């Protein structure tokens, strides 16, 4: 059984919500990423989403775009990011890791090669932001071949027929985008989130994790009451950007403190 399914099942049995944390691989410099991943786990994160730096991250707001830019200045790539996961597995063989990024780097590498590399390194799932279900069949087949989960986004504007198409391919969990806009946006409408999650649950038994616009423990707790977990990213990337010139240890500690506070709010 894939680590994502194992973790989500264990959380459900324990009556707890999933804490999914997103950081950009190589941000603000490559030496920070591995220790930040370890620190996030130590502070209560259940699943790590590792963002693959890309020159045109269309779903991201200014904060995460800046994180991609900082990483690209150090030539961080899909290949080097997969290597970080391999290093992470030397210490942690239980925490699920999802690669979150865009189709271009994966297509350039080739689906089969990418899937083999990711599986060999210990990746558990892939979320390709700009790959619609109509074009995801071949990648989906390669991911299933090596036992990786294919995670998809659903949005407030996703129609019922579109939801059915997406959940037919999805596995691991569904990432529900809580609002219209890009990462880091605000103005959470909890009524809308509750209504849409209820609609989605009629079409899939997959866990539903909610992201976009979640900035602290209170907002994570609020959205997770209607879903199975919260995805938090911009607040971590923003802090890492603010401390870009600080020492690795200072950056890791600051991110860990944010994660601990969010975990506390999520469990309250």
Write the layout of secondary structure elements.
Layout: H1 3-14, E1 18-24, H2 30-42, E2 47-51, H3 62-72, H4 78-88, E3 97-101, H5 103-109, H6 111-121, E4 125-128, H7 137-145, E5 149-154, H8 160-169, E6 174-177, H9 190-201, E7 208-211, H10 217-224, E8 229-232, H11 234-242, H12 248-267
Parallel strand pairs: 1-2, 1-8, 2-3, 3-4, 4-5, 5-6, 6-7, 7-8
If you had to describe this structure to a student in words, what would you say it looks like?
With 268 residues, the chain is α/β, with parallel strands linked by helices. It is built from twelve helices and eight strands. It has helices at residues 3-14, 30-42, 62-72, 78-88, 103-109, 111-121, 137-145, 160-169, 190-201, 217-224, 234-242, 248-267, and strands at 18-24, 47-51, 97-101, 125-128, 149-154, 174-177, 208-211, 229-232. An eight-stranded parallel beta barrel has the order 1-2-3-4-5-6-7-8, surrounded by ten helices. Helix 2 links the parallel strand 1 (18-24) and strand 2 (47-51). Helix 4 packs parallel to helix 6. The model is unreliable at 181-185 (pLDDT under 50).
């Amino acid at each position: 059984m894939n680590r994502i399914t194992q973790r989500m099942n264990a959380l459900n049995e324990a009556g707890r919500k999933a804490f999914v944390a997103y950081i950009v691989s190589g941000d603000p410099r490559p030496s920070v990423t591995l220790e930040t991943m370890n620190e996030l786990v130590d502070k209560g994160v259940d699943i790590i989403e590792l963002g693959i730096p890309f020159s045109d991250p269309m779903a991201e707001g200014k904060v995460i775009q800046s994180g991609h830019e900082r990483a690209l200045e150090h030539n961080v790539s899909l290949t080097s990011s997969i290597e970080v996961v391999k290093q992470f597995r030397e210490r942690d063989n239980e925490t699920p890791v999802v690669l979150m990024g865009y189709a271009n780097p994966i297509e350039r590498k080739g689906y089969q090669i990418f899937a083999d590399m990711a599986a060999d390194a210990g990746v558990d799932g892939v979320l390709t932001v700009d790959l619609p279900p109509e074009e995801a069949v071949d990648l989906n087949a390669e991911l299933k071949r090596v036992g990786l989960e294919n995670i998809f986004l659903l949005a407030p504007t996703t129609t019922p027929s579109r939801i059915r198409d997406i959940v037919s391919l999805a596995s691991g969990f569904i990432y529900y985008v809580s609002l219209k806009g890009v990462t880091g946006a605000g103005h959470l409408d909890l009524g809308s989130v509750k209504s849409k999650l209820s609609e989605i649950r009629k079409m899939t038994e997959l866990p539903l994790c909610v992201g976009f616009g979640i900035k602290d423990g209170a907002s994570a707790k609020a959205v997770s009451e209607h879903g199975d977990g919260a995805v938090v990213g911009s607040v971590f990337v923003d802090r890492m950007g603010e401390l870009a010139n600080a020492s690795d240890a200072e950056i890791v500690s600051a991110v860990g403190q944010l994660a601990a506070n969010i975990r506390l709010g999520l469990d309250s």
